[in-house]
Amino acid sequence: MNILNLSANNSAKKLKYVAPKVKVVPFKDLKLGREINSGISSTVYNIKGFKSIVARTNFFDPENLKWDVNPITKKILSSSSTIIMERVAGKPLYGKHWSVETKSFLPRIMQLLELLQVPDKAYTDYIDKVLNIRRNKYDIDLINPNNILYDKKKQEFNIIDLEKKEDVEEKVSIEDFSPFWDGEGLDIAYGQANRLEQFYIFKLAQKLINKIINAAKQKGVELKIENVSKYYHQKPHVYIYHNDKDRFDKVTNVYKCLRNG
Asked: What CA–CA distance (Å, rounded) separates 257 from 244?
């Protein structure tokens, strides 16, 4: 039977109405699936049977969930310890078991290499997203890099875990990009690495910072970085951008000694 015969036969048949299938599940029957992402205060999980929503929780209590719809945060339901939200596309920057105590250097090198391949437009669009978030009186988390997801298919960054903040200013700075090189954990990883690994971490982070600064310039945004100070410790990106590896080595050695007692 060819397509024409198939079409003719189908048109002669009486069409039967099929009601749309809508999955209705009481809140109390929602079940956690596999872990997707994790942070300091909570973990994100799939919800069994659903592809478009996830749960962020440190103690799953579905029976206490209430409607709490927020188009900015993508929140749908919430309780005192659980948030059900729309699933946001993308992979967390530094893996689901990131923490500020992470000492592994290889994942950082691989991640920095991957971020260097991301189109400039993804970084300029990130600026627009940060400004829009702050315009709506929310702010982003600059500590956990996994609150930024990279959607490789669409080549864009998505931001999750926003905080309500009425006094936030609608502006963007170099610190808003620090999660991309894991500004809070970079010195720890660097201090644990050998000399060759340190060289790669330093140089790749430097290339990424310059890439972001140049991308922002194309958008008319200047991301300023202060000069290196002799009198106080500064964020890793200051030493890296100014190519002051000697100073960064000294700072990370001090941190390492303090951590090791």
From this structure: 20
Find out whether 219 and 131 touch, Cβ atoms under 8 Å.
no
> What are the tokens at 48?
């069994």
Q: Find out whether 139 and 172 touch, Cβ atoms under 8 Å.
A: no
Q: What is the tens place of the pLDDT at every residue in 48-81?
A: 999 899 999 989 999 999 999 999 999 999 999 9
What is the DSSP code string of 171-202?
---GGGGGGGGTTTTHHHHHHHS-HHHHHHHH
For residue 138, which phi and psi values (nearest 5 degrees)?
A: -125, 165
Q: Give the pairing type, strands 50-57 and 43-47.
A: antiparallel
Of 124, 197, 129, which is closest to residue 160 (Cα–Cα)?
A: 129
DSSP 88: P
Backbone dihedral region for residue 74 (phi beyond 0: left; psi -120 to 50: alpha; all else: beta): left
Query: What's the pTM value of the predicted model, to 2 decimals?
Result: 0.83
Tell me the pLDDT tens digit for each residue of 199-223.
Answer: 999 999 999 999 999 999 999 999 9
Distance CA 140, CA 159 (A): 7
Residue 42: which of 61, 67, 68 has the closest Cα?
61
